[in-house]
Write a structure and sequence with these properties.
By secondary structure, the protein is α/β, with parallel strands linked by helices. The chain has 22 helices and eleven strands. The protein has a domain at about 55-155 and about 190-330: 3-Layer(aba) Sandwich (Rossmann fold). It has helices at about 5-35, 40-55, 70-75, 125-130, 145-150, 160-170, 205, 225-235, 250-260, 285-300, 315-320, 325-330, 335-385, 395-410, 415-435, 435-455, 455-500, 515-525, 535-540, 540-600, 605-640, 655-670; strands at about 55-60, 100, 110-115, 135, 155-160, 185-190, 195-200, 210-215, 235-240, 265-270, 310. The chain is elongated and about 110 Å long. The structure holds guanosine-5'-triphosphate (GTP) and magnesium ion (MG).
Amino acid sequence: MTQQTFASQLDALAVWRQALDSRLGQLARFAREHGLLDDSSSNWFDAMRERIGGDKLVVAFVAEFSRGKSELINAIFFSESGRRMLPATPGRTTMCPVELAYDADEQIGLALLPIETRLESHSLAELRRQNKVWYRLPLDLANADQMAQTLTEVTRTRRATVDEARALGFWDDERGQDNPPVDTDGMVEVPVWRHARINLPHPLLKRGLVVLDTPGLNAIGTEPELTLGLLPAAHATVFILGADTGVTKSDLTIWREYLSGPALARFVALNKIDALVDPLSTPDAVEAVIDRQCAEVARNLEIPREHVFPISAREALAGRVAGDLLQLRNSRVLDLELALSEQLLPTRRQTLERSTVEGVRKLQDQLYRELADRRRQSAEQMLELRGLRGKSGTKVQLMLDRAQAEATEFEQCTSKLAAVRSVHSRMLKDALVGMSSDKLREPVDAFHTALGSSFLPIGAKKAFTQMCSELRVLLEQAERSSREIHSMLAASFTKLNADFGFSLSPAPAPDLMRFVDDLVTIERNYIRYFGIGQAIRLSQPAFQAQFRRMLISRLRVVFESASSELELWNKTASAQVDSQLRERRRAFKRRRESLERIRIAADDLEARLAELQGQDDALQALQDRLASLVDEVMTQARGAVPQAVGTGEAAPSGIDLPQVKLRLVGADKLAG
Ligand SMILES: Nc1nc2c(ncn2[C@@H]2O[C@H](COP(=O)(O)OP(=O)(O)OP(=O)(O)O)[C@@H](O)[C@H]2O)c(=O)[nH]1
Ligand SMILES: [Mg+2]
């Protein structure tokens, strides 16, 4: 059996996502065409489809320099170009974090952020949005050599004075042994770029994969944003060791500092096993050496032996480029790829499946209720009209008067609704103020002040924990408020239903406690910066400023998501009231109109009854169609990802170079 690779499985996941998206699209179109889509359901569809279509999967490659990160990325993702795409050479090669992704709205090519931007205080996240600070180079998709040549930019360095290096963060007077060597003119080497983004319509990138290649992490001058922001946000990290070096002290430092925490899917690769091949010993003996090394890695990193993958990135790349399957198999990269896809992709899929199923179920309830409501009203009308059979004109006039009286009485609900609405919006406003960025800033500022005045990490850690618990209180308060809003709505809706014949029912309040979980994760990820070993770094104002910025931006995401969830839920409740009000008014109007017509011509009675029956049949058909469309979405969401061997663009083996080039160009045209 052909062994499935990461590439083909990611491809299969994409096929599943596309199918799900198109099913959801059908359901949305159906709801819209029949006037069943209010603002909030329409927002839900847009958001869900954007998530399904734009869902990113970030895989970061992390290691000390020269362990083979870039080579492994080449072997897994770029062998189809027929050559080494990212520069991989002995010694320090990749000098800045390199992000490979595809964004259809951006120009194909390489975007580079000059290192000098470090002198200003903008964070990478802010700079991403500023187009003009990036230096852009085109990539010619039809010319792999030109692409590879352009990509050597990520290795570029320049000479700088020690003062300049210090200002840029590459010189540390306290950590002398780690500083770059000074040449005879008193100059040192610094990277030219701070960050690189490669925008490429590669089939996998187009399907939401983001690959992060990092420069050797233990170097001075590592962007705090990389270790505080990008790495903790990655869905998976591949940590790479060299079989030629084993686990060195600096490998261990990187592992402990950045990767040993929970929450991330982590893979460990022992690379360069080809270097262990010894012409003087038997294959079995070499195998035993590899085995022993893996066991040692597992022991050193304190992870199970099965989590260590012995590989040769070089052999994998060479094997794929040459179409040599034996060499590819010997590289054992397929085992790693399989583990990546088996452990990573199902979880991504499950998350999407869960949100889709939950959302569609809620939506189905809402739409079904709306259709049932319309049917109930037409049934009432039919009953009324049937009672008119054989009745005199006076009787009809009486009924007309009654209908008029009922309609007037119904209109009294508007003042009641206005009262409920004003209570509701006041409660919501209070709840949202409690989660605003001003509120968020208070505890963060207090922590920052404490950080600036505390010389001991223990004090900083205490202030940090204090801040986290204050933030948690904010979220807990919001959770309480949303429960209060829910009880208020439930009570008011019951009363409105009884008095005015509505069928209102508030959706369950959103569970804001899951944002508390996010907060706990952030706390866990950041707390390691308060270890004794970090004291010096933590006391630097520049690091503190960056730390604060990163922290604020991550916290803001949590609070903003919680706020918008609360807001959306409240909008749904108001929309429900609006739509039922509209529907009721329409029903009253229809009822008056038909009585009016019957008063003028008694013959119209039967015609009107037939018309109502027809309407009811149509509504029933809509209910059935809704059920079958929902069923299709659910089946697709729960269905297995197709077992994709050669499902199209992924071209995992990449043996056929010209054809692949065509695919790349074709893909580009499609995207444009
Ligand atoms: N023998 C052998 N050499 C390898 C293998 N993988 C990578 N190398 C070599 O190791 C050197 C470093 O590889 P890179 O991919 O540049 O390493 P890196 O981790 O990206 O290093 P930096 O970019 O400096 O952080 C290059 O000369 C590669 O050719 C392998 O599997 N076997
Ligand atoms: Mg590299």
